[in-house]
From TrEMBL:
NCBIfam families in the record: GG-red-SF (TIGR02032)
Record SUPFAM superfamilies: FAD/NAD(P)-binding domain
Domain Digeranylgeranylglycerophospholipid reductase catalytic: 177-259
Listed name of the protein: NAD(P)/FAD-dependent oxidoreductase
Amino acid sequence: MEMKDNYDVVIVGAGPAGLAAGIDLAKEDVNVLILDRKQEIGCPKRCAEGLGLGWFNRLELKPKKEWAVQPIHGAALYAPNGEGVQMKRKEVMGYVLERKMFEKDMAIQAAKAGAKILLKHQVISAKREDGEVILTVEADNQTRTVRTPLVVACDGVDSLTAKMLGLNTKLDLNETDAGYQYEMTGVSGYDEHLLHLYFGTDIAPRGYVWIFPKRNGTANVGIGIGAYEEKTAKYYLDKWISEQDGLANGSIIEVNAGAIPVGGFLDKMEADNLIVAGDAGHMVDPIHGGGIGIALEGGRLAAKHALKAIKSEKYSNEDLEAYTPDWYNTRGNELKKRLKGRHLLEQLKDDDFNYLAGSITMDEALKIGNGALTKKDKLLLLSKKLVTRPGLVKIFMKYMKDDSGMPKK
Ligand SMILES: Cc1cc2nc3c(=O)[nH]c(=O)nc-3n(C[C@H](O)[C@H](O)[C@H](O)COP(=O)(O)OP(=O)(O)OC[C@H]3O[C@@H](n4cnc5c(N)ncnc54)[C@H](O)[C@@H]3O)c2cc1C
């Protein structure tokens, strides 16, 4: 093993969160080690690879053609009865990525800045001793330890590192979606410049099926459903694919599966010698399950607070605790509001979706989708649409009144 005995920071997980943190810390001349249990960065991907333009702007990311492989101009949403609402613009609104290339590009940046990255290195235990953390790492059937005053846990949705250091990151089943996906080629019959989302209780209970086009008849075709469902995500996806003319004869070139945290935001994302970021800290959009941009942003924020700790050589819970409110102010508070939106959507019946799809025009959908309407205008538009649906009015009124973002029993 090329691992030294001590590092200023050890980042567990070389996904978007860990790599983003690693780049920023290495650029500040911090002696940083990034460990990942995988044998290839970004692979397998456990992701549909969609990233909205807002994230490129916010994070000052420039799309590169080797990883921003498919420009996307909007989305098409399909109601249970098959009726679609399309939101398509001339401008590019985001990209479908080739994530392994994206993450390798980030890993190169981190290594160039001075970070050490070790793959096939799995953290199997973490404990505190004399104000530091000792991580036990398994690689090539050997174990070794590494010491650090600060661990940044970016080890994804099934993170154990934070738990091993006493931080409660347990994810409630109700706040978890089960994801299953095929990367398929030889598929046709859909607009390659749109993300396609299909809703319905029989299609994807509490979730949706997606087609995220990549290029030349290749697409990520996947599903996310409530993790508590009796039948598996694979069952629903296979059933749906078999009913689609343009997909049934396609070939599967990759299979991905993974859990998605869709809520359960943490009250506390740091402890002595520890900061948690990305999926490990449940930093995911609760409505659509997207987490790449949020993980990149969270990783950077974790790096900012890690750097402050390193400069002051103070690593206690109190020294790190500004991180949690900083994240809520940056992103978490907005995500809590979106969680409220998820709870609203969960109350809609198939009939409601059919009704909305049939009554909202493409122009209106575009205005709602691109944020062109004020809250008041949105309300006005929705109330016009809902006037004949008292059941829906009730649900929307409850949604408007409840500002907590928290689930109502
Ligand atoms: C089916 C599916 C589809 C999705 N589609 C989208 C999408 O289209 N757009 C979007 O924005 N988001 C999507 N997401 C969510 C997105 O993939 C995640 O939010 C994102 O990957 C989170 O990044 P991360 O760095 O926090 O974690 P991860 O990308 O999960 O990285 C964690 C890393 O930690 C490593 N690790 C774990 N434990 C250890 C250990 N003990 N020792 C060493 N290494 C360890 C893992 O190997 C992994 O590489 C999807 C998720 C799923 C499951």
